[in-house]
Amino acid sequence: MNVTTGGIASCDSALSQQRIQRCIQVTIKISKKIKGYSVGKPEAQIPVVQPDPHDVIAVPAKAEVIQMHEKVERPETLIGATYKIKSPLFEHALYVTINDIVLNAGTEYELRRPFEIFINSKNMDHFQWIVALTRIMSAVFRKGGDVTFLVEELKAVFDPRGGYFKAGGVYMPSIVAELGAIIEQHLKSIGLLHDPEMSPEQRKLISEKRAAYEARVSKDSSKKKSELSNDLAGVLGESARKSTDAHHSSPSPASGEGRGEGDEPSATSSAFPPGATMCHKCNTNAVIMMDGCATCLNCGYSKCG
Fold first, then answer.
1. Which H or E element spans position 130?
2. pLDDT in tens, 81-135
3. Helix (H) or strand (E) holding 296
4. pTM of the entire structure?
5. Which of 52, 63, 140, 182 has the fewest CB atoms lying closer than 10 Å?
6. In the beta sheet, which residues pair with residue 102?
């Protein structure tokens, strides 16, 4: 683009240099086709529209949510629970106390998390490892994050001398495993763990299969009783025919033995059918064979899926 300037026209020589520059005509040569034009206004101001204060949305201040971490200080008072472990491996009972801290109390983000654990007992034989174990678990609790892994780790510990059965038929492979079961119970009570509940259809199926299994066992037991009674009656009759001397014969012990056999099947009632085996998932004697597949009547676990 070429720019040329013309001369000064009708300008007084007495004008100042500034007014002379305003009188200069500037000529611009345009080499391209003009497609449109507009007249610009000097110092045109665009009006700014202010927002209506009634339309402004008030954004509430974001609440500061406190999560569990190792720098959280211990408050003066904690809430907790104490559990009793009575094991045949120990002469005296163990008392396990788990204290919890409440974070964001009084808000919608309120959380209850385990903070520390203690184990007390009159038995001082294993005092060292009890103190060491509780200190390590308390440190894990204060560290924050997912602490539920402690349950599986402790429940997987086996005693080389063998385990024992708790009340209700639940097998514990070691005292440490029962400690893991107590921590699991506590975490469920504060909402950190949840039981995988069986569906109504699964509960109904297990109930039907259990009734069928018990009916079959009862039928087989009655059949065996009948066969045993018949065999016993035949033996007694044969013995009576062969005896020729009443003074040397002694049928009373035989008949008494028969009554003893008849009283034998009155077994103690149990929560699960007799003959049930151990479930490796819930450690309960509740596994029976249903339709050719081992199924637990307590937790619903089945090897067939």
1. helix 127-143
2. 999 998 888 888 999 999 999 988 888 888 899 999 999 998 888 889 899 999 9
3. strand 293-296
4. 0.53
5. 52
6. 112
Query: How is 4-31 classified by DSSP, letter by letter?
Result: EE----S--TTS-HHHHHHH--EEE---
One-letter identity of residue 18: Q
Q: What is the largest CA-CA distance in the chain?
A: 174
Residue at 14: amino acid letter: A
- Residues found in the chain: 305
Question: Which tokens is 299 given?
Answer: 């937790």
| Rounded CA separation 218/164 (Å) | 29
221-243: b or e for each residue (b if 16 or more CB lie within 10 Å)? eeeeeeeeeeebeeeeeeeeeee
**C-alpha–C-alpha distance, residues 47 and 41, integer Å:** 14
Q: At a CB cut-off of 8 Å and minimum separation 6, what does 72 contact?
A: 66, 101, 103, 142
